[in-house]
Amino acid sequence: MRKLSREPLARKFSEAQLEAGCDEAGRGCLAGPVFAAAVILPHNPSDELSSLLDDSKKTGIALRNKLRRLIEKEALAFAVAMVEPAEIDKVNILNASILAMHRALENLALKPDFIVVDGNRFKPFGEIPYQCVVKGDGKYLSVAAASILAKTWRDAHMLKLHAEFPAYGWDKNKGYPTATHLSALQTHGPCKHHRLSYAPVRQLRLSF
After folding, report:
1. Which candidate, 27, 34, 63, 53, places its Cα nearest to that of 145?
2. First to last CA, the chain
3. C-alpha distances in angstroms, 179 versus 48, 92, 185, 191?
4. Which of 4, 13, 106, 190 lies 20 to 30 Å (CA to CA) from residue 86?
5. Are 88 and 195 in contact (CB under 8 A)?
6. Inter-residue contact 174 to 155 (CB < 8 Å)
C-alpha cells in the first residue's frame, strides 16, 4: 500500500443525498473511444477506499485496478459509457466527452440529486443541478472514483483493440500519440478505430 502524502479527498461537494461524480478518459487519444463514468458513493465509504482514492493520473496500474474493484463493490451506483471514434469525428471531442458522461448518468441505477463534473465544461443533464470543478478528480471522492473507472474500463477496451490491430502498440500507449504510435501510423496508416478528425490522423489519411 502506498504511503499517503496528502489528506483524503473531500467526500462531497454538495449537501445532496445522492451526489454523482463524473469524469472521462481518452480525450487526447488518436484512437479508440472516449469513455466516461458516473459514480454515486455511499456517505461513508470504507477507510481503505477513502484513503487510496485519487486522480487516476496519479495512480499506477496495480492501484487503479484495486480501486476499480473497491469502487464497484462499494458504490451505491456506477455506470460507464463510451462514444466511438466515428461519433467523435462528427460532434468533436468536447461534445463527445459530455455525451459519454450523459450516457453514463442515464445508465445509473439511482438518479442523482446533484452532479459534480471534472473540468470546466458540461451541459445540463435534465433538471439535475451540477457543478464543474477543475481538477475535481483530485478533490472529491466520487469524481476520483469516476476517473478510475473511466480509465480502467478504457484501458481494458484498448487491450481488446490491440489484439485486433497489434501494430499500433495500444497495449502500451492506449491510443495516445506516443512516438511508437505515430511511427506505426506513418508505416501502416490509420485503421477503423482511429479518430480521423484529429490532425495527425487526418494528415496521414490523405497519404493512404
Report:
1. 53
2. 48
3. 37, 24, 10, 17
4. 106
5. yes
6. yes
φ/ψ (deg, to 5) at 130:
-145, 165
Strands, E assignment, 41-113: 77-83
Residue 178 and residue 29 in contact, taking contact as beta carbons nearer than 8 Å: no
State the Cα–Cα distance between residues 128 and 193, nearest whole angstrom. Answer: 34
**Residues of the chain under the 50 pLDDT cut:** 1-4, 208
Dihedral sign from CA coordinates of 153, 79, 87, 23 = negative
DSSP 48: H
Q: Which amino acid is at 177?
A: P
137: nearest Cα among 122, 156, 117: 117
Q: What is the pTM of this model?
A: 0.93
Give the pairing of strands 114-118 and 34-40.
Answer: unpaired
CATH code, domain carrying 37? 3.30.420.10
Q: What is the tens place of the pLDDT at every residue in 137-183?
A: 999 999 999 999 999 999 999 999 999 999 999 999 999 999 999 99
Task: Provide the grid cell at 66.
Answer: 484495486
CB 150 within 8 A of CB 80: yes
Asked if residue 126 is part of any domain, the answer here is: yes
- How many angstroms separate the CA atoms of 99 and 24, rounded? 10
Contact 10, 127 (CB under 8 A): no
In a domain, 78, yes or no: yes
